[in-house]
Amino acid sequence: MKKIFAANWKLFKSPTETRNFFKSFKEVSAKATGDLVFFPSAISLEAASETVKGSNIAFGAQNCYVQVQGAFTGENSAQIVKELGGQYILIGHSERRQLFGETDALIADKVALTQSLGLIPMLCIGETLQEREATHTFRVLETQLLLGLAKADKAKPIVIAYEPVWAIGTGKVATPEQVAETHTDVHNILTKMGFTAPILYGGSVKPDNAGTLIKQPHVSGFLVGGASLEVDSFIKIASV
Ligand code: 13P
């Protein structure tokens, strides 16, 4: 399966910073050994769209609403992302689930809408430390997949990003053994459900651990936060 290296910029980088990043990144992007996907903040999407035009760099939004237009103050439209040339929507990131109260039911609607527009949903799943310590990881991930993909079209592309919540922004990366075991579980759950999808790992991925993690079974790439904000560190990760 082709590798995917995705960058989640969260609430970082203005339009000017976005343009400057891509001007430098385009000079090295040919080194990537898989597809490149960036998720800038919504206000910087147009800057991204203009600067990556004609390159091997894809982009998308970090979130969208379940309607494409209407009286929904403050929300983002997947239709507008598409008009800008975006190809992906990140859905159900743990920060959306934890800080903004997103439920699996809402996430399922976002996945369905994204696919219906011809965009690719990148669905994030992951357990908390408490859930892992209570040995509930498998059950949590299975539930998130069953509910989050309840309205998904198996015939259309979808990407899964496994991001253990305890490894996000903490510097505590999952061990290669934990990644191997959990990605195999996720792969098996997806297969049982009838889905074929690349499974990315996310959570404190850095240039010095990416080489080992990419070799683990059913790891098709990464979803990178902090280390994706610098050209050097992200291209090192994307060229493993
Ligand atoms: P970090 O790479 O900063 O841990 O963030 C991971 C993440 O949340 C990507 O979506």
Please provide a written account of the structure.
The protein is of the alpha/beta class and 240 residues long. It has one domain: Aldolase class I (TIM Barrel, Alpha-Beta Barrel). The chain is 39% helix and 15% strand. It contains ten helices and eight strands. It has an eight-stranded parallel beta barrel with strand order 1-2-3-4-5-6-7-8, surrounded by five helices. Helix 1 runs parallel beside helix 2, helix 7 packs parallel to helix 8 and helix 9 runs parallel beside helix 10. The longest helix is centred in the last third of the chain and has 18 residues. The protein is globular, with a radius of gyration of 17 Å. The site of 1,3-dihydroxyacetonephosphate has 14 residues, from strand 8.
Notable features of this structure?
240 residues, alpha/beta, TIM Barrel, eight-stranded parallel barrel, 10 helices, globular, binds 1,3-dihydroxyacetonephosphate
List the helices and strands and how they pair.
Blueprint: E1 4-8, H1 15-25, E2 35-39, H2 45-52, E3 57-61, H3 78-83, E4 88-91, H4 94-99, H5 104-116, E5 120-125, H6 129-133, H7 137-148, E6 159-162, H8 176-193, E7 199-202, H9 207-213, E8 221-224, H10 231-238
Parallel strand pairs: 1-2, 1-8, 2-3, 3-4, 4-5, 5-6, 6-7, 7-8
Helix pairs in contact: 1-2, 7-8, 9-10
Bound molecules: 1,3-dihydroxyacetonephosphate (13P).
Structure, briefly:
This protein has helices spanning 15-25, 45-52, 78-83, 94-99, 104-116, 129-133, 137-148, 176-193, 207-213, 231-238; strands spanning 4-8, 35-39, 57-61, 88-91, 120-125, 159-162, 199-202, 221-224. By secondary structure, the chain is α/β, with parallel strands linked by helices. The longest helix is centred in the last third of the chain and has 18 residues, at 176-193.
